[in-house]
Predict the 3D structure of the following.
Amino acid sequence: MSDSDPVRILLSKLNACSDTIAEAYYQNRIHKTDGNARSIEALRQLRIMSPDIRDAFQLRSNLRQFLNTTLNTNRLFSIGADIGGYFSRLALLVDEHSVAFQQGRDDDCQRYEDETREVISDIADAIEDELIVLSMQVSTRFAAVSTVEEKIRQNRYYYGRTNKLVTLLESFHFSDIDEQLAGHEDLALSFRSLLADRIPAFRESLLSILQTLDQYLFEYREIKERTRRVRAVALHLARNPDWEPKAWDEAAQPAGWLQCASPLALECHPQIDDPQAEDFLSELARTIPASANTRTRSVRPPGRIDLTAGNVVIAPPELPIRRAVRLYFKHARASATGVSARRWWAENPSVVGDTKEHMWLLRVLAEHDNKGKAGMWNLKLDFHRHPHFDGNILIRDVIVSKRLG
Amino acid sequence: MFEQTAIRLLEGAFICESTAPEAFRWLNSEHAQAEVGEYLGKLGRKLTMTPNRLAYYATWARVGKGEQTEIKKVFAHIKQTIRPVMHFLSLCMESGRQDSAPSPGDLLDYATLLSQVTSNQHFGEMLRAFGTMGKEFAVSDASTMNGMLNKVIVQMERWGYLIAVNREHETYRFTGKLDYYYQVIDFLLENEPITDSAALNQEPEPDQGRLL
């Protein structure tokens, strides 16, 4: 096991946030404070914590269920239950809560409230997880399996699963749970913001997935049918080496696939007398070599010496920084008292352009290093020693002056 | 976009997502189809789509005596290519252990195919069989699989069924013209006495349910 083992890394991260996890587990929700903000963010990144109402956060159902199982508490009621089970349990809890409330059983009321809130988040988390799984499967076109047969099977399975969920959400939409929770502000808010308001979006996503699955099923059936046809013809051709199709080209009304129009060989020429094209054509002409892969040889007439100018050398434009350095040294070289590089930089912003002051100083020093011996100048450093690093100096300025003697 | 699309169509090209993605997407709009169709109409042609709308190509607007010669040429080309193309598709399916025929847009990796025909005697024999299908598949040294496979791929590319995606890595893609080829196959199956179609009756088609 190395330090990069993902299980160890995850467990160590969870360990670092153990206080936050414990508090969120026992209190059902946790409010963000300066002390736990980092832990909450880390847990959200690990998809272990999700937002609750009123700036609070709660543990996601998967970790909560894991803790329920491990700690074997009385919350252990819905392990392995599907989303349908969650919905049934929600309806039951709401009824129980209502009865307990009417009978004035405050402790039970509190317990039912906690459990109802937990189930609401379980449903939202479970639908969200289900959507992620479905979207992934659909977007990769069931990439885990390679054969069309298997893809069709998977398609059917996920189609049924999605359809079931859509039906469930549709039937839940018509339930009166929101009315039953109307008297309990917190629960009603949890129900509305975590579930009821999101159901239309969930439903839309699921319907979109259903539509894609429908399309895939159609395509897979097409592919399957086509494969069968291709195999049939391949078999026919293999068994009948001399087979040729009938003369379908002689039919009175040839089939559509025979009516491919014959290709036209298109060739274009420029209109050389068009004045608008003159610049473009002359530019083009300049790029074309006089003769491809041949070397022209000019013969000097006897008794004469050619004095050709040769190729014209085009000098590239001088870089702004190079020009600034050249001008600075030219100016400083003529000064007996010397010219401060920093002052010159400050006084000539149009010449130095956007070169930063410290870069300018470094460039002046580099110029001196390169051409200082041959240059007709003297360079003086304005510096002080570094307080901590022996042998290092901090340069404040550079003064270049005329070389004496 | 109109200019390059119209020129390609007049040159006899099949425009699909693999060969000319931008032109293909542009042609998918009704306005572009009308514009190109009108232009082609003036030249005695019309814009046609393959059955699954995977490629566009130009066909004759009217078929008269003048077009008969051209139709014969098209048919001669189909007769010449139907067997090698089908053999190539079979080779791809069998060597890749796929239960589906290649579709336009599917990738073909030259190196993978070469390793399969080299390591498996049956696939090697399938490749050698191309040698009997026309002089365009003839190679000077019939012992090298690489040379033979290269010849086959080049020919498929020339006929417009494959396009190179990455020449350096020798990756190819099946083009929309394959949809046209399948159209020809469907026509022949429906109109020719092709009775050796054991594969056609392999298994009953399950109920389509609410899909159709």
